[in-house]
Amino acid sequence: MAQVDTDRFLKDLNELRKIGEFRTGVHRPTFSPEDMESRAWLMDRMRECGLEPTIDGIGNVFGRHPGPGPHLLVGSHIESQNEAGWLDGALGVVSGVALARAGLPVDVVAFADEEGHYGSFIGSRSMTGLLDEAEIDTLTNRYHGKPLRQALKEAGLEGKPRLRLDPARYKGFFEMHIEQGTQLESQNLRAGVVTGIVAIWQYRIRIQGMQDHAGGTTMAERKDAGLTAVRMLSRIDREFPMVCGPRTVWTCGRIALDPGAPSIIPGEAEVLFQFRDIDVPTLERLEACLRSIVQEMNRTERTVSTLEVMSRSKPSPCDPAMQASLAESATKHANGQWQHMPSGAGHDAQYMARIMPAAMLFTPSINGISHHWAEDTKEEDLALNIRILADAAEAFLRGG
Which ranges form a coiled coil (predicted)? Predict the structure, then answer.
């Protein structure tokens, strides 16, 4: 039975936390000096536990186990959102190092830019062959506009080859992560065995009205795109509960009004809207409802609304055998204090699931906080979950 060193695991997490330290969290944007320092730190930890580390041309750090298989792949990411939490992503990578240090035949990976500073999951997509050079040429930083090519050059990664994973090498991929929600904590639970990662369906709603003077145009004459947007969102919030699933969520991430001045009636509005669920029929019902609402608004409003699909991802179910190993281990270490649950957030595991069996384990998040420097998890819960993961990984490797 593999014996994981929980004290060293916690020590590694807290050492990594010091790189880019911000209040009680971290600030390690992708390809920043702090991010690159953390990648160098990780490669040193990989060497210490017998892995052969390398960093590729998109910033992925990969530690290869030199011994015979079957092998597991374990990891996540170590860059952060701006001024964010110390565990998001880092937990999954350091847990891989802990499993390697315990003698398990695992490769460890820190995927680049899961947080999307330059693109969508560019590290895991690169390693699965879903990121081509043409797309890299188009990507820029969403905060300050720096081209990805320039960032790679400044980080010393220009000219390095990009690694591709060989699915035949692996029996599966494990990712441990904080929950980023309150479901576990609110029920006094200490672990979550993830059933799958939700799909995200994203839309742009454009509303065309008539720009006019706020004082000289009567209410009866107005074609106010801003008010149409507000009424449409109110209607969505009223009707979606009648067609949604138990864990469906929906979000309006942005309302942009043009020209956006206090004394001018908005002539145009743009709404960015998304919903998430793990069940495809539920997603289809939600889209049908959204289309019906837009159609009805065009009948009753003095504006014209159009709906544009921006993206429709697919749900990523976790592997049943890997879930079973995690469930058996969770029962052993935390009987009555764990549950099966979906992930409402996206993770690198959803791209690994395209090429190999994949599964995730959640730890509780204190107050559900994530993507903020106050993000935290109790050390006893971190230690418990690394033991759950280690036993599950070993059992899955032994199984058929």
Answer: none
Q: At 152, which amino acid appears?
A: L
Judge whether residue 369 has pLDDT over 80: yes
Q: What is the mean pLDDT of the chain?
A: 97
What is residue 2's predicted lDDT score, i.e. its pLDDT? 81
| Residue 174 in tokens | 């494990």
| Closest listed residue to residue 321, CA positions, set 350, 357, 348, 360 | 357
Number of H helices, E strands in the chain: 12, 17
Helix then strand then coil, in percent of the chain rounded to 5, is: 35, 25, 40
As given in the structure block, the two tokens for residue 320 are 């049943």
**Could you tell me the pTM of the whole model?**
0.91
Q: Helix, strand, or coil here: 343? A: strand
Q: How far apart are the first and last CA of the chain?
A: 18
Q: Tell me what the mean pLDDT of segment 320-348 comes to.
A: 97
For residue 35, pLDDT beyond 60: yes
Cβ(84)–Cβ(308) below 8 Å:
no
Q: Which of 168, 161, 63 is nearest to 105 (CA)?
A: 63
User: 103 — alpha (psi -120 to 50), left (phi > 0) or beta?
Assistant: left
State the Cα–Cα distance between residues 141 and 272, nearest whole angstrom. Answer: 19
Tell me the Cα Rg of the chain: 23
pLDDT in tens, 115-160: 999 998 999 999 999 999 999 999 999 999 999 999 999 999 999 9
Cα(19)–Cα(34) distance, rounded to whole angstroms?
A: 6
The answer to whether 276 and 344 have CB atoms below 8 angstroms apart is yes
| CB-facing half-sphere around the CA of 268: CA atoms within 13 A | 8
Say whether pLDDT at 375 is over 70.
yes
CB 374 within 8 A of CB 24: yes
d(CA 196, CA 188): 22
Question: If residue 212 lies in a helix (H) or strand (E), which one and from where to where?
Answer: strand 212-213
Are the C-beta atoms of residues 77 and 110 closer than 8 Å to each other? Answer: yes
Give the residue ranges of DSSP H helices in the chain: 6-17, 33-48, 90-101, 122-127, 133-138, 148-154, 183-186, 225-239, 280-300, 320-334, 349-352, 379-398
310 CB neighbour count, 10 Å cutoff: 12
Q: What is the pLDDT of residues 195-225, one digit of tens each?
A: 999 999 999 999 999 999 999 999 999 999 9
